[in-house]
Amino acid sequence: MAQEETGDLGEVDDLPTREETETGPLSGIGRVLSQTARALAGSSIDIDNYDPDLHESLLSFDGLEGYEELERYWLNVPFAYATINYDSRNTDYRYHVVEPDLSEFERNLLDRLVEDVRAPLLYRDDISDDPEVALREELVDRLEEYGVRADEEMFYRLFYYLYRAFQGYGQIDPLMHDPYIEDISCDGPEMPVFVYHEEYTDVQTNIVYDPEDLYNYVVQLAQRSGRHISVSNPVVSTTLPDGSRIELALGEEVTPKGSAFTIRKYAEDAFTPIDLLNYGTVDDRILAYMWLAIESNRSLIFAGGTAAGKTTSMNAMSMFIPPRSKVVSIEDTRELSLYHENWLSSVTREQMGDADIDMYDLLRSSLRHRPEYILVGEVRGEEAMTLFQAMNTGHTTYSTLHADSVQTVINRLENDPINVPRAMVSSLDILWVQVLTKSGGERVRRARAISEIEGIDQRTGELDYSNTYLWDSTDDAFRENNSTLLEEIRQDRGWSQSELLGELRNRRRFLNFLQHRDITDYRRFTAMVNKYYTDADEVMSHIDSLGLDLLEE
């Protein structure tokens, strides 16, 4: 189904409602199917495109008892919308998906249609060209074959649920359309699905699976991702076709409550440094510093807890990689998205017996591709040693690590199961520690510390590091300290101190210019950065000619 842009529905009372009506003289699917011989002659179905101004609404919602409706917005126009409800007595939010109501007759008819439409769709040559048209034609054929007289409203209610079953994600399909949802979690059958919403955090929904449906759905998700799941192999981590990360558990072997799944939704458009600037994750000084460090081939680790946004930040910073540099990325599940011509993306293949290809294998292989920059989704085992070996032999490497402080990162790297020698850890240049926290009553992601590894202290034998930027939670601002790394870059480039400061200032002004122009598309952002690499003087002259005050000193 063509997905229209998600938008606010206006006033709550403005949404059209639909009163329950009979859709035909037949009161049950049994009476329809008992007329098989007569149905061969069929009935003629002539369906117009659905028009909300001409036809009855497909949706109705009278509210949740005991809850105040806060807002509603479209998920899939005109078939589904979300409504957010709040119980002030119990401080409880509810996320309610509103979809077309089906009469008992329509539910029974839909069950039969799912079986009878599936096979013809599989054998159609044009299904991949336009699945909507193919499904619409098959639905018309089946209804004519059954002898069912369907008006536009009935036809599109059936069409929606068939499309949701064959081309969408079933019951959670509306959730997959919601750009404000980050995670979808089903902890077992006959339990409500929970979502993590940008505004309301963890919220219970009105979606519930019965045991058999959930078991079959987990198998279907695995198959859809090109993976196998079974009682003998009941846990699978994989990626959905849209790039979303998914963790699956089948049956009661490892999850006693029954089958379960969690989906970390994939953002189709990658965050850029300008997005991080807009959200306050960093400021323009940090971005200019990181840009210069990345261009100067300094290696980084992005650390943080679950959902802190470390991979998002690594992906955004990687957009500063100079054009034409050879980049190789290695991931368990596909998350990185770059607009870079010379980029080789690789993903592990697991649970395939002797043919397993893990991150260690891919990292060793990547070194034969002569990369200048190596991006590793996350280090957690033996691949870390190879990564640091590559770092020590002149490759620029970026990776993520689960840790919430600089010292925790160092401890994890030096101890089981990673076990990187301290002398090799000292070749790391920058540690970026990011947190998911509260500021001003809102949930925010902040770069808590940007720290430089300065080598091994000869007196104590410990790793020395200094915090170049620190986030101050009291006023939600970043504090800047002296940087040894910038001094190294200045000397490498043969710049004077004033030239270094001038370059940092120009990059800050350029980034603020992009923010002023709202350039957040990662393709446009990368193209603009590449233009700066090509002719920085021309770019800055153009910005100067605009007379914009882009810096707050």
Keywords:
553 residues; alpha/beta; Beta-Lactamase; 3 domains; disordered N terminus
Q: How much is the radius of gyration in Å? A: 28 Å
Approximate helicity band: 25-40%
User: Uncertain segments of ≥5 residues (pLDDT<50)?
Assistant: 2-43
Q: What general form does the structure show?
A: globular
Strand order of the largest sheet: 1-2-3-6-5-4-9-8-7
Name the beta content range. Answer: 15-25%
CATH architecture heading of the largest domain: 3-Layer(aba) Sandwich
What number of domains?
3
Topology of this protein?
Layout: H1 29-33, H2 36-39, E1 68-76, E2 80-87, E3 92-98, H3 104-122, H4 131-146, H5 152-166, H6 173-176, E4 181-186, E5 192-197, E6 201-208, H7 211-224, E7 235-239, E8 245-249, E9 260-264, H8 273-278, H9 284-295, E10 300-304, H10 310-317, E11 327-331, E12 343-347, H11 359-366, E13 373-376, H12 383-392, E14 396-402, H13 406-414, H14 422-425, E15 430-439, E16 442-456, E17 463-472, E18 477-480, H15 484-493, H16 497-516, H17 522-534, H18 536-546
Describe this structure in words.
Helix 3 crosses helix 5. It is built from 18 helices and 18 strands. The chain has three domains: 168 residues, no CATH class; 88 residues, 2-Layer Sandwich (Beta-Lactamase), CATH 3.30.450; 274 residues, P-loop containing nucleotide triphosphate hydrolases (Rossmann fold, 3-Layer(aba) Sandwich). The two termini are 50 Å apart. It is 34% helix and 22% strand. The chain has 553 residues and is α/β, with parallel strands linked by helices. A hairpin with a 4-residue loop joins strand 2 and strand 3. It has a nine-stranded mixed beta sheet. It has a nine-stranded mixed beta sheet with strand order 12-11-13-14-10-15-16-17-18, sandwiched between helices.
